[in-house]
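2024-03-11 09:14:02 DEBUG pipeline.ingest accepted 1 chain
2024-03-11 09:14:02 DEBUG pipeline.ingest length=138
2024-03-11 09:14:03 DEBUG pipeline.predict start
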Amino acid sequence: MKKNLPSRTVYFLLFLLLIIIEVLIACFINDSFIRPYLGDVIVVWAVYSFVQIFLANRCSPYIVCIGVFLFAILVEVMQGIHIVELLGLENNPFFRTLIGTQFDRNDIVCYTVGSLLLVGFIFIRKKKEHSAQTENNS
């Protein structure tokens, strides 16, 4: 029996929605919570959705989540070693924004929170699917 998992289209639409939210936060919100913290939580979900466009139903969603978390940590570490400057991109606003230029431990906390929320969502979804399958087989 085929599992009722999200399709690539669903992940693509979710990715677009999350990117739009991220851009709106970046352009219009300059506060002390949403932009610096919630934006970093949401970015984990956006990257997860992007990766799932290509890997949906081919790889455990938990593995994808762990990979996205490790990628986020890697980007933060690269900020800590000033990778933008090392690559000579310090005058390029696109790469300064994309990669970032400031290491912040709080970002790692936010990536952790975003990843844990995602794992919780995956767990709940799998549990609901299992329950629905069990009911259908009864």
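2024-03-11 09:14:41 DEBUG pipeline.report Residues 105-137 form the longest helix (33 residues).
2024-03-11 09:14:41 DEBUG pipeline.predict end
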